[in-house]
Specification:
Elements: H1 8-31, H2 37-66, H3 78-107, E1 115-117, E2 121-123, H4 134-172, H5 179-182, H6 194-212, H7 244-250, E3 256-260, E4 265-272, E5 275-281, E6 284-290, E7 299-305, E8 309-310, H8 314-319, E9 333-345, E10 348-357, E11 360-373, E12 376-386, E13 406-416
Antiparallel strand pairs: 1-2, 3-6, 3-13, 4-5, 4-13, 5-8, 6-7, 7-9, 9-10, 10-11, 11-12, 12-13
Bound molecules: protoporphyrin IX containing FE (2 copies).
Length: about 425
């Protein structure tokens, strides 16, 4: 007689979800309380797998409600039927409750780090929670944290009971074909049942996989090679091809208006959990009115679209515009403006200006070199900013052991008159 069994979609979903949950439950042991780039990537993986489990479990539950399970073997005792029903309901509850509380946890978190599924698709926070007053969000966050942790322990318990039940029927009775309902063809009472061995192997692979996976943040995107002078805070250009006096003599008396040309870059470099990060802004513009012989009438304004930040790592790149870093929702642009220039050597200047970033305006000193060749100019400057003074890095990112206080900012610019 062919034993009753679940239909194929139910079986496929059961084993997929089981493997995903066993994998998923390992990850917190690895990222717990760590703020390294790898932990950051592991949390993103945990969130990705968790949302996948949510989707699969809802599909499984939908299927279950419209496809009743096969009748259970007659030989099962009443208490066994009841216990298995309770455990199954509990498992469904946790297969859905775990991801929901996890989602609530990240949706109410102060850090506001977005969820990027598998580094590809942004998953929204639960609508409404982001706009709650901070005190309300904290209460929900505390609840979600407790619930996610407690349900996690509950899940360990139920999986233990569930697997113990399945093994009891499989190993200790010949007339209770329970495993065969989820693993068609399994012969009850057979210890060396190949399907059971396959399941055991799957369990080991899912658990080991979670300990072996290394979703390291990708290396930063290659940026244009930094100029030689970028090594030192004060740029030192090789001797100018042309004497500054000749330049001055040629330059018109009123400062010229310059247009930035393609290939100009605005970059920054820092460390993130000990790992070097090279970033840049891909959208920025500059109004430049400048002449070496009319410094008093020169002025420059650079406007940076902060959402255009790129560091070569998709997870970090969605985090940086968030409330914890640039907070582009409130302050989409940073503006550096200056009308105070000082010549400090041949082709070398210092601009003293102010930078408005994330709602804070601070003086910034930018030493730079400038070579003008006819109607073309090449400018290169490097400075260092205290990110904490602008509030870039909130909550757990304030810690300067993960991201240092000082961030090096460099600009390489070519312009035409
Ligand atoms: C680790 C995560 C797992 C979860 C979340 C899980 C969840 C579930 C759920 C919710 C059901 C009830 C299906 C329904 O009636 O709609 C079920 C059935 C079943 N599971 Fe699992 N399972 C897991 C792992 C396992 C493992 C490792 C085994 C085998 C050793 C197993 C064997 C079975 C069997 C045989 C059934 C059918 C029970 C019956 O209806 O008589 N499960 N599982
Ligand atoms: C079935 C799915 C899931 C399972 C089994 C699961 C399991 C766990 C477990 C056992 C912990 C450790 C709890 C603790 O130490 O307090 C944890 C932590 C965490 N989970 Fe999940 N999780 C799931 C889904 C999710 C989802 C969907 C998200 C977010 C979208 C998420 C986000 C988190 C976060 C952020 C933590 C760290 C909490 C902290 O200690 O600060 N989880 N998860």
């Amino acid at each position: 007689m062919v034993p009753d069994r679940y239909k194929t979609p139910a079986i496929v979903l059961h084993w997929l979800i089981a493997a995903a949950i066993l994998f998923q439950m390992q990850l917190p042991w690895r990222f717990h309380d760590l703020k390294t780039p790898e932990a950051f990537a592991l949390i993103q993986l945990h969130k990705s797998v968790g949302i996948t489990i949510l989707v699969l479990s809802l599909a499984r539950l939908g299927w279950r409600l419209s496809n009743p399970p096969p009748p259970e073997p007659d030989t099962l005792a009443r208490w066994e039927r009841m216990l298995s029903a309770i455990v199954h309901v509990g498992l469904y509850g946790l297969m859905i409750g775990m991801p929901i509380t996890g989602w609530l946890l990240v949706s109410t978190s102060k850090t506001g780090i977005p969820t990027l599924l598998y580094g590809l698709v942004t998953w929204p926070h639960i609508p409404g929670f982001a706009r709650l007053p901070e005190a309300g969000r904290e209460v929900w966050n505390g609840f979600a944290h407790q619930a996610h942790g407690l349900l996690g322990w509950g899940l360990y318990g139920l999986i233990g009971l569930h697997v113990a039940g399945a093994l009891k029927h499989q190993l200790f009775s010949r007339d209770e074909p329970v495993l065969a309902r989820m693993a068609p063809g399994a012969v009850a009472g057979r210890w060396a049942e190949p399907r059971l061995l396959l399941i055991a192997l799957g369990v080991v692979v899912a658990i080991a996989g979670a300990w072996l996976v290394h979703p390291r943040p990708k290396a930063s995107a290659p940026l244009p090679p930094p100029p030689v002078q970028a090594e030192t805070p004060e740029p030192v250009m090789p001797a100018a091809a042309r004497a500054p006096k000749v330049e001055a003599a040629k330059a018109p008396a009123a400062p010229s208006k310059w247009t930035v040309t393609k290939g100009s870059t605005l970059g920054f470099s820092t460390l993130w959990g000990g790992q070097a990060v090279e970033g840049r802004f891909d959208a920025w513009s500059a109004d430049i009115v400048f002449s070496p012989d009319a410094l008093d009438r020169s002025h420059v304004k650079v406007t940076i679209d902060l959402a255009s930040v790129a560091t070569g790592d998709p997870q970090r790149d969605v985090a940086l515009p968030g409330a914890d870093f640039f907070d582009v929702a409130q302050h989409p642009r940073a503006v550096f403006s200056t009308d105070n220039f000082e010549a400090v050597g041949p082709n070398r200047y210092v601009a003293k200006g102010k930078l408005a970033l994330r709602g804070v305006t601070r003086p910034v000193r930018l030493p730079f070199t400038l070579k003008i060749d006819g109607d073309k100019a090449r400018m290169s400057g490097v400075t260092s900013l205290d990110r904490t003074a602008f509030g870039v890095g909130q909550g757990e990112w304030q810690a300067t052991d993960q991201i240092p206080t000082q961030v090096k900012v460099s600009v390489q610019l070519t312009a035409t008159r």
